[in-house]
Write a structure and sequence with these properties.
Length: about 80
């Protein structure tokens, strides 16, 4: 698998939770608030596509972790409220 295919799969995996969130937005009132994390996802995608060194990819990986935590906490709060 080449670099372009790997980046395409990564982008698909990054945006897949927002498809699920779209469906959950019909059930939970505060769920659309979690879409704010899509801004960070967009920044991550730009960083990965424009990365020239492994250091930039590692920074993007750290941001992916932070994004996943923010998404999970936000969705958990949206479901709880």
């Amino acid at each position: 698998m080449g670099r372009k295919a790997a980046i395409g799969i990564l982008i698909g995996f990054l945006f897949m939770p927002y498809l699920i969130l779209g469906a959950l937005s019909m059930l939970f009132f505060f769920a659309p608030v979690v879409f704010i994390t899509s801004v960070l996802t967009g920044v991550i995608v730009v960083m990965v596509v424009a990365a020239k060194s492994p250091r930039e990819l590692i920074t993007a990986l750290g941001l992916m972790t932070m994004n996943a935590l923010l998404y999970a906490v936000g969705l958990g709060l949206a479901i709880a409220l």
